[in-house]
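Hey, sorry to bother you again with one of my protein questions. There's a protein on my desk that I can't quite get my head around. No rush at all, and the record is pasted right below.
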Amino acid sequence: MNHARDGDCGPNNNGRGGGWGRGGRPQDCDDTPGRGNSGNRDRDDRGAYDDRNNTGSGSLRWSGRGDDVVELRISGRRVDAITRSGNRVDDVNSNIRGSGLPSSDVTVTAERNVGCGSVQVVQQPAAWNGYTAVIRIYDPAGGASFYDLSAFWH
């Protein structure tokens, strides 16, 4: 089952197969598991696999030092920490268990393990937002604080 258009595979690929640019790669047109695009798995912009077609449960464990308002944006296996106000977030660690946040309607919950402010899911994954969950950390105390939180989806 080849997802590429006719002429997009092989030596004349010219970068059309898989978005790798500058001549592409012949294996981007190969649906053999473990090679190329591996069936329904795509590579993200850093070359890692993004299992966006999964439908299972999963979790995120995140820690970092934040000041005032920090948002965590979760999409697939990617987690971005964005400083909305205050000092820039640092000392960040994240670990996703499972296949990542799926491209389907799931419910995301979050709980603070360590930290003095609040942790709240402010955007659930849906088609309109590209199945991205947003978690907001709000720290009203002055200065940066260490946070450790867990998020779950099902």
The first strand starts at residue 42 and ends at 43.
